[in-house]
Amino acid sequence: MSEMSIVVKDKLKSVSALHAVSIFERDHKEIAAEGLTFMGARKDASYLLFVNEGRTWFFSNKNAEVFPMEVLLSDGVLVKIDENLELVSSNRG
User: Fold this and answer.
1) How many CB atoms lie within 10 A of CB 23?
2) What are phi and psi of 44, to 5 degrees?
């Protein structure tokens, strides 16, 4: 999969959890509170996109909603939206 969007309540707070497991913004730029944020190394051409709850999706009239989910990355990092709808990450590797 080349990209997957993850909806969070607070994008700025959430991406800090990814920094703890060495996942950074695609081009190491400052992360904006609004809009999409591409996380992951450009050379890998595979990204997690982070967006705040309530954002309207491109080509749609639907608003983004947060829900519990887990994504296990190939390097053993687990990115999870828990039952409290908070993002947590851990390195299982």
Assistant:
1) 19
2) -80, -20
